[in-house]
Amino acid sequence: MRTFNNMAEKRGAAHRVDKGGAAVDPYRVMFVVGALMLVLTVLMVPPMLADLVVANPDWQVFAGSALITGFIGAMMVLISRDAWSERVRLKEGFVITVASWLAVSLFAAVPYMFMEKPLSFTNAWFEAVSGLTTTGATVLTGLDGLPEGLLLWRSLTQWIGGLGIVVMALIMLPFLKVGGMQLFQTESSDRSDKILPHARQFIAYLAFVYVLLTALCALAYRLAGMRMFDAVNHAMTTLSSGGFSTHDASFAYFTSPLLHWLAVAFMISGALPLVIYVRMIRERKLSFFGSEQVRGFFLLLLASVMVIALWLVWQQGMAPHRALLLAAFNVTSVITTTGYASADYSGWGVFSAMAFFVFMFFGGCTGSTAGGMKIFRIQVMMMSIGAYVKRLMMPHRVVSMAYENRTVTQDIAMAVFAYVSVLFMTVGLFGMLVAMTGVDLVTALSAVVTSVTNVGPGLGEMIGPAGTFAAMPDAAKMLLSFVMLLGRLEFFTVLVVLQPSFWR
User: Fold this and answer.
1) What is the DSSP secondary-structure string of 292-320?
2) Is-contact 11 27, C-beta < 8 A?
3) Is the Cβ–Cβ distance between 137 and 456 less than 8 Å?
4) In degrees rounded to 5, what are phi and psi of residue 406?
5) Quick check: 312 and 345 in contact, CB under 8 A?
6) Beta strands in 310-425 (DSSP E)
7) According to the model, what pLDDT value does residue 85 have?
8) C-alpha dist (Å) from residue 479 to 187, 303, 366
9) CB 457 within 8 A of CB 148
10) What is the pTM assigned to this prediction?
11) CB-based contacts of 344, cutoff 8 Å, min separation 6
């Protein structure tokens, strides 16, 4: 009894401090993290059932993992249930975002450490982080012989991570004003601290669209020749821009051109803002190309595909239809940060390897499951550079900028340039740190880039489209796991929390 009274007193003290705006209420953070761990527990049930149906003893792995995760999550919710409020303060938003992703990734790693051939903590956390951030880099080999429950778990982590990324991008990041995301401010992420009441209906619409697109993708894959298990898994990892496969050969395992073209279509679907689909359902009209960001995405993708296709015809002597299919699939996979591979594009020549390295940075649209810089940031940067050049020519000229019918203020342009600066600083710093672990330059640099942009495969023999991250040193994998989280949380969400002044 005394213990619970002490807890109540601590919660009350935390409320009093928070009401004054001086600190973060740890119990509010604990409630959200605990609730998400309970969601993770529920997600462990389908893999457990998948193994149980075929009498695979690995069902015990997920049963045990669910018990551990569910118990800790339930305790956190029970301890903090009285502290929860729908009024989320700005500082709490930063802490909740970082703590949630960190905690969920740690407990998502548990099944990998209990499997028949258990992974070390480093490898298990790497695989879990790669799944939840929809990066798609893997340390697992022999996928064709792994239990179905484990394969399903990998796909589920990417699928739920994809939805979490969209919710974070459309609700939390504009609220936190991270990386120019305030351009996409809605009533669900307005400047007040009451973000959740407006967000519930919005999240419900997003979830409905996400589930519908996944179901359509699975149906299309199944009708085109995939077995049902492969269709469901690949649908989840396609729409989430994740790229985990049930086969070591990735999408090259499937030889049907129709399946590859379907994958291209659904990879693009996942890289478009889910809000567009919500608007189409609510307004009942097709409005894809009404968005400046979507038009830019399609132009960039089309130009990139044509360049690589022409290169394959000219330098590799491929038939035009074969070159177009390979270029469309692999370029779309990298630009949308999905990470599937139907061929080892690092072997198509130096130009091709360099082009794919550049493609890793692009990414899809904001409000999609794709990673990378995002198309809107590229467009805002180009507009800002153009405006700066005009001011150099005519210093007294007033140059206004607008994007998607919203004014691009100096603060937004600064936030975008700050994001891009930190992105390249991260690549440089962590590239050197990974190189210190003993890997070669191409491997170190491409590993960091593919991790920070959440693409998946890198370049070179070790981590290229035909390889895995299994042979990377443990120190490198720990660094890359942090980089994946850093990139997916858009840098500043983590950097703010790491500032000592944040906690004063």
Assistant:
1) HHHHHHHHHHHHHHHHHHHHHHHHS---H
2) yes
3) yes
4) -125, 145
5) no
6) 402-403, 406-407
7) 67
8) 37, 34, 26
9) no
10) 0.89
11) 464, 465, 466
For residue 494, being part of any structural domain is answered with yes
Classify residue 337: in a domain, yes or no: no
In angstroms, the Cα distances linking 243 to 169, 207, 410, 438, 456 are 20, 20, 37, 27, 7
Query: CA–CA separation, 263 vs 269, rounded Å?
Result: 10
H or E segment at 196?
helix 196-223
Helix axes 196-223, 228-239, angle to 10 degrees: 140
Tokens in use for 454? 């959440």
Residue 472 lies in domain: 376-503
- Residue 86's pLDDT is what? 65
476 within some domain: yes
Whether the predicted pLDDT of 445 surpasses 80: yes
Which residues are CB-contacts of 455 (< 8 A; sequence separation ≥ 6)?
Answer: 135, 136, 334, 337, 339, 360, 371, 372, 449
pLDDT at residue 187, as a whole number: 46
- Can you give the pLDDT at residue 17? 42
Per-residue model confidence as pLDDT tens digits over 185-213: 654 444 434 434 467 778 888 899 999 99
Across 342-378, b (16+ Cβ under 10 Å) vs e yields bbebbebeeebbebbbebbbbbbbbbbbbbbbbbbbb
Summary mean pLDDT of the chain: 87
> Who contacts 70 (Cβ-Cβ below 8 Å, separation ≥6)?
37, 38, 41
Nearest-angstrom CA–CA distance, 126 and 137: 8
Residue 48 near residue 150, CB atoms below 8 Å? no
* CA pair distance 502, 485, nearest whole angstrom: 20
Query: What is the arithmetic mean of pLDDT over 108-135?
Result: 94
**pLDDT per residue over 219-271, tens digit each?**
999 999 999 999 999 999 999 999 999 999 999 999 999 999 999 999 999 99
- Residues 430 and 445: their CA atoms lie apart, in Å, by 8
Q: With 60 as the cut, is the pLDDT of residue 346 above it?
A: yes
Read out DSSP for 170-181? IIIHHHHT-TTG
pLDDT tens profile 150-187: 999 999 999 999 998 888 888 778 877 777 777 666 54
Q: Which residues contact 504 (CB under 8 A, 6 or more apart)?
A: none
199 inside domain: no
If one counts the domains in the chain, the total is 1
Please report the DSSP string for 433-450 in residue order: HHHTTT--HHHHHHHHHH
